[in-house]
Amino acid sequence: MERRHLLAGSAAAAALAAPNLASAQPRIRWRMPGSFPKSLDTLYGTQERICRRVGEMTDGAFQILPFGPGEVMPALSVMDGVGSGTVECGYTSAYYYLGKDPALSIATCLPFGMSSRQLWSWLQEGGGRALLADVYRDQGVMAIPAGNTGAQMGGWFRREINTVGDLNGLKFRIAGHGGAVLQKLGVVAQQIPGPDLYPALERGVIDALEWVGPYDDEKLGFQRVARFYYAPGWWEYSPSIDLMIHPAAYEALPNHYKAILEAACTEAWHWMMARYDHLNPQALRRLVAQGTQLRVFSRDILSACYRAAQDLYAEIGSSNARFRRIHAEWDKYRVEEVQWFRLAEDTQANFLGLMAQQQQR
Amino acid sequence: MERRHLLAGSAAAAALAAPNLASAQPRIRWRMPGSFPKSLDTLYGTQERICRRVGEMTDGAFQILPFGPGEVMPALSVMDGVGSGTVECGYTSAYYYLGKDPALSIATCLPFGMSSRQLWSWLQEGGGRALLADVYRDQGVMAIPAGNTGAQMGGWFRREINTVGDLNGLKFRIAGHGGAVLQKLGVVAQQIPGPDLYPALERGVIDALEWVGPYDDEKLGFQRVARFYYAPGWWEYSPSIDLMIHPAAYEALPNHYKAILEAACTEAWHWMMARYDHLNPQALRRLVAQGTQLRVFSRDILSACYRAAQDLYAEIGSSNARFRRIHAEWDKYRVEEVQWFRLAEDTQANFLGLMAQQQQR
């Protein structure tokens, strides 16, 4: 009996140590439509990169094909397409769909929200993904954070905005909750698709617009029709992009493909950040050389917008208990992060900013 | 001819679509000694995580075993052990070995260096890894960035440091280039191993010490023997941790294992950051509740240290052309990043810092 037991033990040990050359690498093919034009090598480039990296990590066995807007479905139908199972996954941002549920915008960014590192910490370690899983589930999808642009710019203005009063009547192309905040201060918030932006600004149909940041904005040529480039884009401090996945497709994956997909999305988030951090300073330098005037919104303007944003969150929360609950958790986390960053990170950033300014002179 | 051509085309297409259930997943076992005590769930925890994730992504076929300091080799012999091929890889920081080559410290961090996001951008997109590859090669290793603590604290002081003159004669436990900078201002820089730090500070053998940040520091209990906790740790704005790999071991990996190893290291870098960003604010709150007094080095002190750091880099560069060349590239990149962050990121961080301060009152 004892001997048999020992033998059984050895056999089990031998099985564990056996070579595993035929580990299952099932061939899987997915389609990934996205919301971002192929002309944006930052955003669409990251979508392509996820597909390429999943292929590389599975020795070509798990292939995902990326598609641009309109190829498989329209740009802003991606979440619906994933939810209905028309496609297995899609690359998009949750806040495009805030009309369905305002809590979706917490997953991307809220005005005066967290920095990219703070948001990453909240999502991955602070319980953010667990809190948001419910919100996605209602839309028939699950999501992995898979991109972030970092802080965007405050947009292109044909005239200077010096006081809160200057916002009154301003025709500003700005979408989502940022637009809703500014409407409280008299801004006429407009929604205009990307391709129509340049002519609208050139002809004065709008007074101002916001797009992304120096690198993406420069391609659209806004510097030729507006002189003032404002910072910061307080409505998009660190907008996050998701890989949305149809739950049944995800569950059908072997565990190691699930692990690889998660890793490819983490790579994507931080690759996009690195691309923007690499390309934006160069583009900013070119824009300034072409005569673009940089401006920073005054503290009065920021404070008025901050208060209007808090009012907006209270309004949404008053009729939406889940938004109220998730927003409260998010905001508590955010304030603790800000207090810590203020001590250890911002003191260095500000000192080094001063030194760089002195070197520049 | 046309028909044969068509048939050939179909055959090629069929081959591409053929199931590939027996894709090669060779069993590989590596050892990974590290430089960080197992008591640090942040640093050692990340080392473990890389091993776990590589296993998960290869369905258990590529197994890496983590070891703490002294188990396979001493904490500060890891680079040598990897270089000689005693082990396949190791988890350590390049600046521990700056005595062999001062350029190794550029790979980890230099005093008044880049923020974590700036360093990540430089390493991955700004050519940093290519520039440093030579430096690692001289030590017989290659390296993948695989962790970062974010901004560390300036350390624990038994008395306040108000002027540059207060640094004179200060017995401060601080290693590496940070210590070399402070020595120029009269500090008596000391090297004391981790376990001896608490008694040294308690007995007044030293006046001050720096370790990591709130979460790791709290465990060692420094708050009980020093009252003043300074920020920022300008000598460690974003220290990077490497997975160092023996080149022949790396080259023997199939390409998809190489891709998985790279992805696991990217995950590790950002997981460590998220862990610290999640845990540090909570620990800071506890420390303050126990009576720790927070202080920020004055601008005069920071300026004097900044100038001393520039002098140090000029001295090292005068006798080391490669250090001079890489440092010049690094510094040019850094200044451009700082100027961009100052506009888009820091304006938001500072405004939100102010709002958080007002909310706190």
UniProtKB/TrEMBL annotation, chains A, B:
<dbReference type="InterPro" id="IPR038404">
    <property type="entry name" value="TRAP_DctP_sf"/>
</dbReference>
<dbReference type="InterPro" id="IPR018389">
    <property type="entry name" value="DctP_fam"/>
</dbReference>
<protein>
    <submittedName>
        <fullName>ABC transporter substrate-binding protein</fullName>
    </submittedName>
</protein>
<keyword id="KW-0732">Signal</keyword>
<dbReference type="Pfam" id="PF03480">
    <property type="entry name" value="DctP"/>
</dbReference>
<dbReference type="InterPro" id="IPR026289">
    <property type="entry name" value="SBP_TakP-like"/>
</dbReference>
<feature type="signal peptide">
    <location>
        <begin position="1"/>
        <end position="24"/>
    </location>
</feature>
